[in-house]
Amino acid sequence: MQQSLPLIAPPLEGEFDLAPPVPGPWQSPEPDRIALFLQRLAEAAFPDILPASVSAIRFLPLTFFPGWLLCDVHVRQSDPPEGKRARTHSLLYGPDGFTALDGNAHALHMHNALHGITLLDTEAQSAYLRFFCYFVHGEMGPFEILTDSTLLHLPDDTAFKIAPLTTDPEHDGDHLMCFRATVLYADTLFSCRFGLHASGVVEMLDDTELASDVQRRPRIRFLGTGRFRLEEEAVT
């Protein structure tokens, strides 16, 4: 009787040079879990995420997608050609494989329709809003909900206090919940009001510009599922 051999994970000796995309209890997976993940990754055949080039992995369980993990995968490049520096890629990983988080809202809406979404309390709702705004991009990148002003460099070193993400007391009956948040989009800081539907659809109901010519620290560029520090700030 033929026996299946246990999966053996290669050592992952790299480290992330970017903070996680959203806050939460991120985990470093155990070796057997790494091996299974890399096998599934090979089967999915993402052209920019070759399992042999993976140097670090971290997982975040998602309360709003039960059974699914938000995965960060750091891909190293040895002697990289132009434009192929090390990147951190983000994917959803669950019972049915992967959903690529490439900035396209359609991918998330399809994921919600196929796998469902659980938004039972304000904690799950606010976590989903942060996730959605980071991984759905406009022409200039994500709509990053901020928690920390130390990420920012404002003109003339102006001091600025970030208003936290909060539920909106003017919540209307058209949405499951409304929120107010401080958002960085490209180089502009906004105070935004969002409406969240039970289906996972997010609407920006209004926005007020707070500051322009704002620089994020570190500055990040997004390409497909990947993101990386701009060249002058890249960690070697």
Please characterize this protein's 3D structure.
By secondary structure, this protein is an alpha+beta fold. The protein has one domain (31-233). It has helices spanning 31-44, 105-115, 122-135; strands at residues 54-61, 69-75, 87-94, 97-100, 137-138, 141-142, 144-145, 152-153, 166-167, 177-185, 188-196, 202-211, 215-216, 220-223, 226-229. Strands 1, 2, 3, 4, 14 and 15 form a six-stranded antiparallel β-sheet that branches. Strands 7, 9, 10, 11 and 12 form a five-stranded antiparallel β-sheet that branches. A two-stranded antiparallel ribbon has the order 5-6. The chain is globular and about 50 Å long.
List its salient traits.
3 helices; alpha+beta; five-stranded antiparallel beta sheet; 15 strands
Short description:
The protein is of the alpha+beta class and 236 residues long. The chain is built from three helices and 15 strands.
How many strand units?
Answer: 15
Overall shape: globular
**Rg over C-alpha atoms, rounded to the nearest angstrom:** 19 Å
Helical residue percent band? 10-25%
Order of helices and strands: HEEEEHHEEEEEEEEEEE
Structure classification: alpha+beta
Quote the average pLDDT: 87
Report the sheet with the most strands, covering strand number, pairing sense and barrel closure: 6 strands, antiparallel
Number of helical stretches of at least 4 residues: 3
Uncertain stretches:
1-6
